[in-house]
Amino acid sequence: MWDTFLQAVGLMLVIEGILPFIYPGRWRSLVVQLATIPDNQLRWGGLITMIVGVCLLIAMSN
Asked: According to the lineage, what is the superkingdom (predicted)?
């Protein structure tokens, strides 16, 4: 189980690093824009992202 978890974390880090590697200027401006979004909207976005992720995990495990 730990092997799978570490593989998932590694894949997440690779995916997260693609945009700053390829488009550092655009990524920086995106981060600046994210800093202006109210906390409530960020929380909803995070919740939706987690729900989609859990649904994908459940779908892939069957």
From this structure: Bacteria
